Amino acid sequence: MVKLSHVVPFGRSLAEYRLMFNLTDLDLSRDILDAGGGPASFNAEMHQLGYRVISIDPIYQFSGAEIEQRFYACASDIIRQVKDTPDGWVWGYHQSPDDLLRNRETALRRFLADYDQGKAEGRYLVGELPDLPLSDRPYDLMLCSHLLFLYSNHLSLEMHCRSIAALMVRGQELRIFPLLTLERVRSPHLEPVCEVLTDLGYYVEIVPVCYELQKGGNEMLRVTRLAV
C-alpha cells in the first residue's frame, strides 16, 4: 500500500494535458485512460465537457481532505526547490514559481470538487502500475503524466517495461510525458525501454510537444501497435 507521506500530489489541468500530450479535439473524444493521474483536474474538466476519462492512481484510496492536506504539506518545499534552481526551468505556460503554485492549487480545487462524485461514478479507480484493476475492455488512448521516466531513480527498468506492457494490453496507443527525471536529465531507462518495445513489435517515437517546464522537457514518448 502506498503511504500518503511518500506522495507528491501535484496535478495538471486539461490545458496542460492538451499541450503535454499534443491532444487534438478528436483525441479528447476518444476513450481515455489516465494512468497515474493523481489530483489532476483533467478528469473533472473533461467530465464537465461531456467526455469520459478513467483515472487510476493509488492516491485515490485516500479522502479528498487527506490529499489536500498532503498537497499543502509539501507544496512550499517544492516551490522553494524550484526557486533555488532558476536555470532548470522554463517560464512560459507558468509565468513564475508563484504562478506555478497558483496553477497547481487551481487544478487541485477542481479535482477535489469532482472527486467524490467521480469515485462514485467509477471515474477514479484505486490502482498502481503495473497491476491495474481494470476490465478487459480496450481504451483508444492511454496517458501517463509525471510518473514513468520522471521517477527513474525510484522505478526500475523492469518496472517501466512491465508497466508499459500492462497498459498496451488494454489499448492501442500510449503517450508518456515527460522523458526527463526529477534531476532534469533524460531518463536512463528511455533508450532500453524503446529497444524492448520495438523488439515486441510496437512502434515507438519521441515526439516534441508545446509544453516545457523542466528545461529540455518538451518531448513525449508515443507507443502504438502499428506505425500510423
Task: Please work out how many helical segments DSSP would assign.
Answer: 7
If you consult CATH, what is the topology? Answer: Rossmann fold
Domain count? 1
- Overall average pLDDT: 93
Low-confidence stretches: none
CATH superfamily: Vaccinia Virus protein VP39
Query: Helical content, roughly?
Result: 25-40%
Description:
The chain is α/β, with parallel strands linked by helices and 228 residues long. It has a single domain (4-224), classed as Rossmann fold (3-Layer(aba) Sandwich), CATH 3.40.50. Helices cover 37% and strands 14% of the residues. The protein has helices at residues 14-20, 25-28, 42-48, 64-84, 97-120, 157-168, 190-199, and strands spanning 32-35, 53-56, 124-125, 141-145, 173-177, 203-208, 219-224. A 7-stranded mixed beta sheet has the order 3-2-1-4-5-7-6, with helices on both faces. Helix 6 (157-168) links the parallel strand 4 and strand 5 (173-177). The longest helix is centred in the middle third of the chain and has 24 residues, at 97-120. It is globular and about 45 Å long. It starts with 13 loop residues before the first helix and ends with a strand. The model has no long low-confidence stretch (mean pLDDT 93). One of its GO terms (biological process) is methylation. GO terms for molecular function: methyltransferase activity. It comes from Thermoleptolyngbya sichuanensis A183. This is SAM-dependent methyltransferase.
